[in-house]
Amino acid sequence: MAGVFRFKQFDVDQTGCAMKINTDGVLLAAIAGQPAPKAILDIGTGTGVIALMLAQRFPGAVIDGVEIDQAAAQTAGSNFSRSVFGPRLRVFHDSFQAFLNRHGHLKYDLIVSNPPFFINSLKSPHAKINTAKHTGEIFFEELVAQCAAHLAAGGSAWFILPEGTAGPVKETAARYGLKPRHWIGVKSFGGHPVHRVIFSLGFDERTPIESEVVIYESPKNYSSAFGLLLKDFFTIF
């Protein structure tokens, strides 16, 4: 089937989704973690790939995916229903703000998001891509505020953002009592600068664990570290 990305334990149809499966999303899903989470929230689920990977990693978890774009939400719902993990996956067509405001009682052990990330940049003429990739600073204020309100005690919220955006978001999070736990720089090649940061936030005070992930050893050849992270998911490993 055209547009279908095949993983080892599930398939992901990308039809109708402005943002296709990419390295950012799968890296976040492979790295983000919390000891034995029971409730997980995926903000901006898109195709549902992050939720599906987390469902595979955490067999005891129920996962809610929230997606503002109707076509993407429908695609995610179809991907969930066709998966063996379907009974533990739910998709909601809504903004995360509206969804969480309506369900103020909900608490999650693990929250993940591969959010829009181009702050104050030139926007695409395509509305769906604008929604998926462009945003203003108010978005991150709302994102952090909702995470703080709906994160369970001892839980963690994980994000992947450009290197220049992650720092300001961390500063915003501090105003809501969220402190960094992990700070992982992502590089395309060993000698390249960090272009993405995967980081986690929680309420407890601790020394952040800092590390790096290099995606490629050479052009078209993934690094052993990347392969180790994705070996349970990608059919090429």
From TrEMBL:
GO terms for biological process: methylation; tRNA processing. Keywords: Cytoplasm, Methyltransferase, S-adenosyl-L-methionine, Transferase, tRNA processing. It catalyses: adenosine(37) in tRNA1(Val) + S-adenosyl-L-methionine = N(6)-methyladenosine(37) in tRNA1(Val) + S-adenosyl-L-homocysteine + H(+). Pfam families: MTS. One of its GO terms (cellular component) is cytoplasm. Its EC number is 2.1.1.223. PROSITE patterns: N6_MTASE (PS00092). CDD domains: AdoMet_MTases (cd02440). The keyword Cell inner membrane does not apply. It is found in: Cytoplasm. GO terms for molecular function: nucleic acid binding; tRNA (adenine-N6)-methyltransferase activity. Its main location: cytoplasm. Residues 27-160 form the Methyltransferase small domain. PANTHER family: TRNA1(VAL) (ADENINE(37)-N6)-METHYLTRANSFERASE. Belongs to the methyltransferase superfamily. tRNA (adenine-N(6)-)-methyltransferase family. Specifically methylates the adenine in position 37 of tRNA(1)(Val) (anticodon cmo5UAC). This is tRNA1(Val) (adenine(37)-N6)-methyltransferase.
